[in-house]
Amino acid sequence: MNKNILKTGVQEFIDKYYNTDIMSVLLSKPAFDDISSKELAQQLSGKKKAKDKLPTWFRTPGIYYPPGINLEQTSSEITARYKARLVSGNKMADLTGGFGVDTFFFSEQIPDLIHCECDEELHQIAKHNAVALCQKQTDFLCADGMAFLQQTEKTFDWLFLDPGRRDAGKKKVFLLSECEPNVTLYLDLLLSKAERVMIKASPMLDLSAGIKELQHVRSIHVVAVENEVKEILWILQKGSAPEEISVKTVNLTKDREEKFDFKWQEEAVTDADFSPPLNYLYEPNSAILKAGAFKLIGNSMRIYKLHEQSHLYTSEQLVPFPGRVFKVEKVMPANKKHLGPLKGQKVNVTTRNFPMTVAQIRKKFSFKDGGDIYLFFTTDYLGKNIAIQCSKIIEEDSSK
Question: In the record, which residues are listed under signal peptide (predicted)?
Answer without folding.
Answer: none
